[in-house]
Amino acid sequence: MECKVAKTAGFCGGVKKAFLMVQEEFKTKPENGRILIFGSLVHNENVMKIINGMGIVKIDSLNEVGRGDIVIITAHGAGRKVFEEIERRGATSFNATCPKVSMVQDCAKKYYEKGFEIIIFGNREHKEVRGINGWCENKARIIPDFKEVAALINEIRAKKIKKPILLISQTTQNIEKFERIKKMIHAAIKEAGGKIEIIDTICRATFVRQKEAFVIAKEMDAVIVIGGRSSSNTKQLWKIAKDQNPNTIWIEDPSEVKSDENKEFLRRAKSIGIISGASTSPDDINMVRKMIESSD
């Protein structure tokens, strides 16, 4: 059986940096306090098992933070008030935010302070989006789909939005959808005589992964997407691959390859492509590849 692993499979630069930062910084435990992580470093349970194995405790509320603790901010970032609250509690923050996400946060803050209406294309429940919004006093307008884009455009045409607009995106969103949204909103602003600034904040690595997923899905008999179920960028890759190739499955852990359903799936395919989300470890990818190759 032919097995092709995407060149972009494995950790993206931001995830790799966050993971290595945490591993290097916390080889030794502090004398006082605990090492906590506010949420999941990345949206991948296998990676989080490694983090937890280092003695780092995941928390979901800052109420759990005490004096002397070190609180790791995940790769998805956090809003300004999170940092302020950690300091207020006598703890120290360790910022592992992806540099690309930090750039988007800076954009939101800068333009909000200049009086712009901040529009974010993304999932309003996603941690990255909540963090970006936290740098413009949680007053950004978040548009997750074309239905809400249409509602925004109606308001622009009716001249209900008086401020200039900044349009940015969650870093892991679909690049083609954002291109369409940019054109639609820009045309409406031009028609209404308003002002808009558009900054392409989708991560370059995300774009390359999506492009490669499209190509591999067309080339291969079947596709396996590896990544966390709560991972936004993995979900985008799965949608792209599935649209091009109905013989696409999404697994979170290598052990899922051995399920009865997936064994049959593998048996029928003569060629299989493997793509992964940005927070999937190389070890998981290699394990899946070996399972496929040994199934011949």
What does this structure look like?
- The chain is an alpha/beta fold.
- It is built from 11 helices and 12 strands.
- It has a 4-stranded parallel β-sheet, with helices on both faces.
- The longest helix is centred in the middle third of the chain and has 18 residues, at 175-192.
Beta-strand segment tally: 12
Instruction: Tell me the major beta sheet.
Output: 4 strands, parallel
Q: What is the first-to-last residue Cα distance?
A: 6 Å
Low-confidence stretches: none
Oligomeric nature of the chains? single chain
The secondary-structure element order is EHEHEEHEHEHEHEHEHEHEHEH
Q: Assign the structural class, choosing from mainly alpha, mainly beta, alpha/beta, alpha+beta, or little secondary structure.
A: alpha/beta
* Radius of gyration, whole Å: 21 Å
Overview in brief:
By secondary structure, the chain is α/β, with parallel strands linked by helices. It is built from 11 helices and 12 strands. The termini are close together.
Distinctive features:
alpha/beta; single chain; 4-stranded parallel β-sheet; 296 residues
Layout of strands and helices, then pairs:
Blueprint: E1 2-5, H1 13-25, E2 35-38, H2 45-53, E3 57-59, E4 70-73, H3 80-88, E5 92-95, H4 99-113, E6 117-121, H5 127-133, E7 141-143, H6 146-157, E8 165-169, H7 175-192, E9 196-198, H8 204-219, E10 222-226, H9 232-244, E11 248-251, H10 260-268, E12 271-276, H11 282-293
Parallel strand pairs: 1-12, 2-3, 2-4, 4-5, 6-7, 6-8, 8-9, 10-11, 10-12
Helix pairs in contact: 4-5, 6-7, 8-9
